[in-house]
Design goal:
It is built from 10 helices and 10 strands. By secondary structure, the protein is of the alpha/beta class. The radius of gyration is 20 Å and the shape is globular.
């Protein structure tokens, strides 16, 4: 296998979503390269690869580019099956998936993001503020953030209660009673881990180790486990933007061509389509030729902006929309 397993992770260090992937890679000891990105648009390296999708992180394996951490983690589990962190029993896989949906689709992280303190220096940066408004579709005005804060605290406190009196009530160390952190822990912990590290986000009169000792102890154990894993895992190689782009466009595809299954959208292989998320970052649409479609994933072939190469861009189906470009599709409903 090529150096750093053909993997390049495009991210910035304080992205809570990117941590889901870097934690996973550290816990698995998987060698990879990284290309650090600015926290706001434009991101010229990803633009050079022909990618319009604007969320972070993005991971490439060879000339296949994966968007959304749900799909990224799924692909890593499949590519490196020995020692995978995912559950094997059906009931535990269901718990794992429900935790993923609770934090991402169920509103936990959305409410967590509303607890960014109004005094955070980045909120004084008009470029950052405008970027996050374009990403989220809501106002990042300081007054709006202040007004939303009490309701967000209430929602996040309820999420802490759920963990404290539910999964962690019996003093287990990890969500699925494993010997070390599993994928279920990653799926559950990341918004809470982020908030406890964000100074001023959690009011101690409502949310602290005093009210939720089990949750805070779990987070502390997780921090120690990650620190131990990073100490023994290969250190990621940091690539400059031009080097990362060159590596991707001169690599081979990591996955064979897939099929387009029968789908309610009525799409066919080879059609020109556009794909975009509908929960955030919805102004940025990727366009290309439909290469594969399943109930879980859509793959398009799209040209890069350098060297006229083709890459395959992979998106999950959950909370993503697919539309034929230049014509109407026949629904199969």
């Amino acid at each position: 296998m090529a150096p750093h397993n053909d993997i390049v992770l495009f991210h910035y260090s304080y992205s809570p979503y990117a941590r889901r992937v870097t934690w996973y890679l550290a816990l698995r000891g998987i060698e990879y390269a990284q290309c650090l990105q600015p926290p706001t648009l434009p991101r010229e390296d990803l633009n050079a690869l022909g990618l319009r999708y604007r969320r972070i992180p993005v991971m490439s394996i060879g000339r296949d580019i994966y968007c959304d951490t749900r799909l990224i983690l799924e692909k890593l589990e499949a590519r490196f099956p020995d020692g995978a962190l995912g559950a094997t029993e059906p009931d535990q896989r269901a718990v794992e998936k429900l935790l993923e949906k609770w934090c991402i689709d169920g509103g936990v992280f959305n409410r967590a993001s509303q607890l960014i303190p109004p005094e955070t220096p980045l909120l004084n940066d008009p470029k950052f503020k405008k970027d996050r408004e374009d990403l989220s579709g809501r106002s990042w005005d300081k007054k709006n953030i202040t007004d939303m804060r009490p309701e967000a605290i209430s929602h996040i406190r309820d999420a802490f209660v759920f963990l404290e009196t539910g999964f962690l009530a019996d003093n287990r160390e990890w969500i699925l009673k494993t010997e070390k952190p599993s994928l279920a822990d990653i799926e559950a912990i990341w918004p809470f881990h982020w908030l406890t590290g964000l100074k001023g986000a959690l009011p101690p009169s409502f949310i602290s180790s005093k009210q939720f000792p089990k949750v805070f102890a779990w987070i502390d154990r997780f921090n120690k486990a990650i620190a131990t894993a990073k100490a023994s895992a290969p250190k990621p190689k940091t690539l400059k933007g031009a080097d990362a782009v060159s590596f991707v466009i001169h690599a081979e595809f990591s996955e064979p061509d897939g099929q387009v299954v029968e789908d309610p959208l009525g799409l066919e292989k080879g059609q020109d389509v556009e794909v975009w998320p509908i929960d955030s970052g919805f102004k940025n649409h990727d366009r290309g030729v439909l290469s594969a479609l399943s109930s879980r994933e859509v793959v398009i072939v799209s040209p890069t902006k350098v060297d006229e190469k083709e890459v395959k861009i992979h998106h999950p189906r959950t909370n993503f929309r697919i539309r034929q470009v230049g014509g109407n599709t026949k629904s199969k409903l």
